Amino acid sequence: MISHQKLSIQATLLGTGTSQGIPVIACNCEVCRSINSKDKRLRSSLLLKIGENNFVIDTGPDFRQQMLREEVNTLRAILITHEHVDHVFGMDDIRSYNWIQNHPLDVYAEPRVQDAIKRIFSYVFVNQKYPGIPKMKLHVINDKSFKIDGVKFIPIRCYHHKLPVYGYRAGDLTYITDTNYIPYDEIKKIEGTRVLIINALRKEKHISHFNLEEALEVIEKIKPEKAYLTHLSHGFGKHDDIEKELPKNVFLAYDGLVIKLN
Ligand SMILES: [Zn+2]
Ligand SMILES: [Zn+2]
């Protein structure tokens, strides 16, 4: 049994959509045409406020808009799950924090993901730097827990089809996205978590994401007090319709949802 610190955490779902977001460009389906604000989903990302520090898991293409919407005026560090476009392509916009905090931003990612970041944002890592480019300090992570200003994060190794990705546990909250397989030993690391946020793309099976049935199976194994489904496709249906079908302790996440843990 892994010991966990008691942390007072405020989590905000910055985005809860799959890679295209909802509405999808040029789609006329009933979900994309819905006027319910809960059916508008930016690319998936999570804000964690722990003590006085803000942490963000993933910086997708909507990062700028998400930071403005939630009025995130300081940012301590970024944790990356994996290098897909919808999880990293907004990282250029850390420039405002570089300016305000007068410091490179700490970015935590595994070596393969760091290589991708260096390719995608190659201008950040060249010798002759253009003035005003983002400044980041990359920190290597692996399966072991690590601390940022005393806050412990536990990486959870998951698989996005064949691609290894990381979920993260902080205190009694665990965030897992873009996965369809969690090995047994990693499930053990999540046990005792009170809040589980996990990806569920839609009802139909998918090669690299849990569908609803598979996500519910994981939730049943871990038995958190509350579970929230994220990284949703427009193919899943409308928010209010899906929520009616979910078990009592399972909810559909939506953009701007705040979860507090004491
Ligand atoms: Zn994704
Ligand atoms: Zn649609």
Major sheet: arrangement of strands:
6-5-4-3-2-1-14
Helix content: 10-25%
Mass-distribution shape: globular
The helix tally amounts to 8
| End-to-end C-alpha gap | 21 Å
Coarse structural class: alpha/beta
Quick check: average pLDDT? 96
Main beta sheet: 7 strands, mixed
Ligands, ions, cofactors: zinc ion
Uncertain runs are none
Strand elements, count: 14
Radius of gyration: 18 Å
Q: SSE string, helix = H, strand = E? A: EEEHEHHEHHEEEEEHEHEHEE
β-strand percent reads: 25-35%
Written overview of the protein:
The longest helix has 11 residues, at 212-222. The mean pLDDT is 96. With 262 residues, the protein is α/β, with parallel strands linked by helices. It is built from eight helices and 14 strands. Strands 6-5-4-3-2-1-14 form a seven-stranded mixed beta sheet. Helix 8 (239-244) links the parallel strand 12 and strand 13. The site of one zinc ion has 7 residues, from helix 2.
Q: What tags apply to this protein structure?
A:
seven-stranded mixed β-sheet, 14 strands, globular, binds zinc ion
Chart the SSEs and their pairings:
Blueprint: E1 9-15, E2 45-50, E3 53-57, H1 63-69, E4 77-79, H2 85-88, H3 95-101, E5 105-109, H4 111-120, H5 122-125, E6 136-140, E7 146-148, E8 151-160, E9 163-170, E10 173-176, H6 184-190, E11 195-199, H7 212-222, E12 226-230, H8 239-244, E13 250-252, E14 258-261
Parallel strand pairs: 3-4, 4-5, 5-6, 10-11, 11-12, 12-13
Antiparallel strand pairs: 1-2, 1-14, 2-3, 7-8, 8-9, 9-10
The structure holds zinc ion (2 copies).
